Amino acid sequence: MQQCSASVERFKHRLLLALGRDAHGRATAANQAGNAIVEFTFLSVLLMVPVVYFILTVAQLQAASFAAVGATDQAAKVYVAQANPADGTVAAQQAAMLALADHGFGQEAGSMSITCAPGSCSDSGSIVTVSLDLSVPLPLMPFDNGNRLNVGKVSSSASQIVGRFR
Q1: 0.90 exceeded by pTM
Q2: Longest Cα pair distance anywhere in the chain, in angstroms?
Q3: 18-53, pLDDT tens digit by residue?
Q4: Is there a contact between 64 and 154 (Cβ–Cβ < 8 Å)?
Q5: In whole angstroms, how far apart are CA 48 and each of 36, 53, 56, 62, 139?
Q6: Which of 54, 87, 134, 149 is deepest in the core (most CB within 10 A)?
């Protein structure tokens, strides 16, 4: 019987050593070696990934606001430089899509409208207002079909006066 209890004691001692514990069950210093680096790395990755994604999302919103302001400004300027409203509309849409493409946004992301007041768009002194609503997608999302996840919507408008001389 004593031989069996000695075997159990040896097994218990080996098991505690394998688990990094001393004979009383307390953790030994050898067990703790290198754990700080692993814990720091794990927590850094766990905390930094959401922070980096948040920064990318804010940057995407900022790029959308720059794109919307630039697109409406250029579209309004191009519109008033054209001889008739039909050519002005086509030129304004092309200018807006070019400005959006420069900032990484496609044609399907924005919707543009052109209004004129007072009177016709070709009358000198009338104010042409170009408005743009731009949907901002989440960065790094692999959805290219209609199931896009959006951060929000950015709107911009710009006005230009139709000059007397063209």
Answers
A1: no
A2: 115
A3: 766 666 666 666 555 667 788 888 888 888 989 999
A4: yes
A5: 17, 9, 12, 21, 16
A6: 134
Place of tokens 């911009």: 156
* Residue 69, both tokens: 């302001």
Q: Of the candidates 113, 103, 109, 121, which has an alpha carbon nearest to the alpha carbon of residue 148?
A: 109
pLDDT, tens digit (0-9, with 9 covering 90-100), for 75-112: 999 998 888 888 888 999 999 999 998 888 887 778 88
Tokens describing residue 154: 């950015």
Pairing of strands 150-161, 127-137: antiparallel
What DSSP assignment string belongs to 15-27? HHHHTTB-TTSPB
3-class SS of residue 89: helix
Please name which of 128, 125, 126, 124 lies closest in space to residue 115, comparing C-alpha atoms.
128
